[in-house]
What we know:
Layout: E1 2-7, H1 9-30, H2 36-50, E2 61-69, E3 72-78, E4 84-86, H3 96-106, H4 113-127, H5 131-138, E5 142-144, E6 150-152, H6 155-161
Antiparallel strand pairs: 1-2, 2-3, 3-4, 5-6
Helix pairs in contact: 1-2, 3-4
Amino acid sequence: MAAVAAGFLADARALMQMVRVRAQMHKITYEEPVDVWNIGKVIGNRMQLITQYGGLRPFGVSMLLAGVDKTGVHLLETDPSGTLFEWKAQAIGRGSVLANKILNQKWRDTMSEKEALDLALDIIDKTEKSDKEKREIVTDLAIIRKDGRFKKVGEEYIKTLK
């Protein structure tokens, strides 16, 4: 499972620390990995709970959670209210309006890994203005395969696919 965040990253770190503990507790208790939706609900419930108390600042972060579990492939989005959405393809943060427009037009369930990576690079190219920002994002790209393997890719891997 992997997560990305947009907004107050300190809030994302606090939520992810809580999630790591919950995932380990689940693994120890049930001797199996936690489901993606279970993690999404933990985050969403915590974010929503904070909105109910006066004097507490709501979490100022949206997150995308991606992973594979026994029920399949999942991409979940949480917003600061604690609402969960499931998507086939989604972007959050700066440039997300244009990125989501491109994803709506070009994303297909049957895309190969190379096609999906090409689409991601095309979106990065169209949404980021400076070459420095583009390079920083490309060095953080990752692939989660359907068998659950996680692979962080960089410029070298991308060059091998072209």
